[in-house]
Write a structure and sequence with these properties.
The protein is an alpha+beta fold. It is built from eight helices and 14 strands. Strands 3-4-5-6-7-8-9 form a seven-stranded mixed beta sheet, with helices on both faces. A five-stranded mixed beta sheet has the order 11-10-12-14-13, with helices on both faces. Helix 6 packs parallel to helix 7. The protein is globular and about 50 Å long. It starts with a helix and ends with a helix.
Amino acid sequence: MSFSLRDARTVAAILADAARAEILPRFRNLADGAVRQKSSAIDLVTDADEAAERQIAAELLRAFPGSVVIGEEAASQDPAMLDRLGDADLAFIVDPVDGTKNFASGLTLFAVMAAVTVRGEVVGGVIHDPVGRDWAMAIRGEGAFIEREDGRRTDLSVAAPVPLSQMEGIIGTTYLPEPLRGTVCGNMPRLASNAYYRCAAHEYRMAAGGHCHILLYNKLMPWDHAAGWLLHREAGGHAAHFDGRPYRPTQRTGGLICAPNAESWEVARAGLLER
């Protein structure tokens, strides 16, 4: 099973259509009761998430008959859906609104994501920015790029390696267990700067575009990371779990560090995870 640039553009159009129909009309216009907690006050779902996911799933199944669609909201209700990911000949992993907390807060830092897998291997990724009205796309083995509505295309490339003290990081500590969380927080001053945007989609876009050096995450739900991981990899970056094992979307524990290359990954891992 192959996945082409033409296929990626089909997915990109489906994500944009859902954003126009179901997400943007609700932005800063959510009705009472349209925002609900899932597992906690920082884990939210809105009417926009659910409506967009329904539209995206229906359109993907229409465009790619016989495929499997695993959406964040559907899988939250039926976690067994994730068990299909490793064996499906063609699967789409959908995050209808990545950065839901930002979206519900009226902040423009949110996006729509879809990763494409073939028997558990990520072969494509599309991240749509509904506000910026463009797409970050990656095809396995064919690079990563930004494509705009007028067809202009800009190739993506990760930042050049620098020493730890010059690295700019985006470090997600929310789901790190103690004592590791305390260690990482204590080590952050070793970096030149640190930020966290509550939106993995834009964080991966920043790293793939060379606008920061390090990403660190602990919770690895595939809708948050599979598309961005491929974008970063195809932009020339190196990523691995905290113990050095390669990333796979079927693996949801073990943390993840993304860096410009393998040597920078080693430096970042030691600098952030070790006392």
